[in-house]
């Protein structure tokens, strides 16, 4: 267990110093070639779990320490072990003993002799005093909900009825949801093939199936043949909303890794341009489309500029713009601690620039679907309201979200639930 704790501690320490979890975790894992696949899986679970509950863990740690800890590695190891003691099923005393041993295995500079004693004392104190500490810990909202205070305050203001449910949905384990290419196989037939493979699942949406337990994609029947893709149910609304017809010129303006590009192309034969500013991420679009046996013209470029554009207008534009990702925190648990309040305005500015530029590339009568995976209104309804003020040739079309299976929404905003993430959609038509 100590190897998993060590990998998770290094990872958590990197995230808390400002690095992305998806970048840090594989880098740290690579530094432990001796770890077994099970230990690696354990380290992933511990890293995600500790960051998901970091607000609460940090509050316990503050109660248990006499003075702030300066060695970030020891602090991170304590965060991981406290997560295990509070939320994991592992045996408490094994967690403590392994964490103490892990201290001696930290890479250079070697921790001072006091560190082992401190880890031991803090964790044993937690086991002894947890019940007494609960009231003190729960005196702040950051500890109760495990989000930064500015985030909690924003949701309270913007969603006076739903904020608690939204925070809680963001702290759940995300479901694994599949999108069935119903041109290749009906949803019912695919459900039956899952039953035949003893994979428990249920239908969530028209093309969506949610698995009872996540599993490696390679074990999914028909995955390599492109019969299914992994995609959140909320994200699966994008392609049908874009309302494509065969032969249309379509732009997917921020396309990587290509989840929505593939879905749109499954719906009709199109002249599709898939653009992204990140060349490496664009490679993933290529491999995703290859698996689905679909094609698009892939371009590296800035959706806020026109140097990549040949001047021909598009009939449809999907603008799945960069955003705070505040609607998908259960999948990206680091987002809660990496984002700052000022980032919301910064993203909103970038989105406004992209949206105005793409609008010029849309044909008269054409439709642009604006998408974010955020729940902050500055990036969503307020962004669209400001856009409509600036563009007299734009009309906001109704989405009919009320008619969709299992979708919880407030106007055009999907409220995150156990079945889907928190997306925002706005369908704009040019006249
Ligand atoms: C929300 S993700 C897109 C997800 C994608 N549509 C899907 O469904 O798989 C946003 C993407 O925008 C890209 N991006 C960020 N800034 C951009 C820009 N100025 N122009 C084009 N793409 C950009 C990022 O590299 C990222 O891949």
Question: What would your notes on this structure say?
Answer:
This protein has 431 residues and is α/β, with parallel strands linked by helices. It folds into three domains: 2-143, N-utilizing Substance Protein B Homolog, Chain A; 176-230, 2-Layer Sandwich (Alpha-Beta Plaits), CATH 3.30.70.1170; 235-430, 3-Layer(aba) Sandwich (Rossmann fold). Helix content is 46%, strand content 14%. It has 17 helices and 13 strands. The strands form three sheets. A seven-stranded mixed beta sheet has the order 7-6-5-8-9-13-10, with helices on both faces. Helix 1 (2-16) crosses helix 6 (92-104), helix 3 crosses helix 5 (72-87) and helix 4 crosses helix 7 (114-137). It is globular and about 70 Å long. Residues 254-260, 275-278, 281, 302-304, 320, 322, 354, 373 line the site of S-adenosylmethionine.
